[in-house]
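Notes to self after the Tuesday call (sharing in case useful).
The group wants a holo model before anyone commits to mutagenesis around the pocket. I volunteered. Ligand is zinc ion. Logging inputs and output together so the record is complete.
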Amino acid sequence: MIDAHVHIGREHGRESPRERIRGILEDYVTHGVHAVRDGGDVLRLGLVARDLAPEFGLIYKTPVYALVKAGGYGGFLGQQCSGLEDIRAELKGLMGLRPDFVKVIQSGIVSFDEDGVISPGGFNHEELNYIVQYAHDAGLPVMVHCNGMAAVAEAVALGVDSVEHGYFISRTELEAMHEQGTLWTPTFAPLANYLRSGTAAPGSREVVDRTLKAHAANLLAAIAIGVRVAVGSDAGAAFVAHGQGVHDEVACFVRAGVSPQDALRLANESGARAISPMAS
Ligand SMILES: [Zn+2]
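Result:
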C-alpha cells in the first residue's frame, strides 16, 4: 500500500531524529506500506527519512519542506516566504536539496468548531503561478494543501498536480480536477480519528461530523466523475499514527460508501501516481 500524505517531521521525541525516524519507517513496513509521500516539515526530516528508507525497502518521496505564505497557516510545515523575490530565492535554495516535488500551503485548515470556516493562509495568484511554473520547469510536480472552493479552483486552474485535503468544495471544483487530471487526496483520517477519539467537545463533534459527511459525498461524486483519488492519511497529525493511518483512511473511504476493493485499489494505483515524477 501507499500512504500518499504523511508528515514525518511532526513526531519527534527525545531520541535522535535518525533513531526516531527508523522507528517510524519500521511502523510503515509492519503495516504493509511500501511507499510514502511526505508533505514536508520545518525540521526538514524528510531528508533523513529519504536517506534511511532504502534500509527498509521503502520508497520515500519528500518535498523536504513546504512553501508557506508568511503570516498564514503552516509555519511548522516549512519555510515562510513573502513576495516573488523571496519565493524565487527560496525555490533556488530548495532545489539544492533535491526535492521530489514542490509542496505549497495554499490555504488554512478547517475549523473543528465552526461550520465551513477555514483559517487564513496561501499565496496570491501571481505567486502561486510563479511557484507552479518554476516547479514544472524543473520537472517537479506540485502538491498543494488547499481547502475551500475559491482556493481549490484557483490552484487547479494554475495546473497544480495534486490537491490535498480539499474540504468544502463543490462539484464544480471536482469537474475541474477531472478535466485537468489533478489528483485529489481527501485526508479524512485526522477528522475521523478525532471524532472516534472521544475527546471532541459536543459542539465540535457535530461540526466535524457534518464536515466529514459533506466530504464523503464529495468523495463519491469525485469517483463517479472520474477524478483520480489518492489515499493519504496525514499521519503525524494529531490522532493519526504512522503505518496505521493509511488503514484508517481506507476505512474512512469504505464508511463513505466506496467498496473495500475500490478503496484498496485507490491506495495502490492512485497512490502510485502520487509518488511518480511529473505524472501529467
Ligand atoms: Zn498534511
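Two things stood out.
The mean pLDDT is 94.
Residues 5, 7, 39, 234 surround zinc ion (CB under 6 Å).
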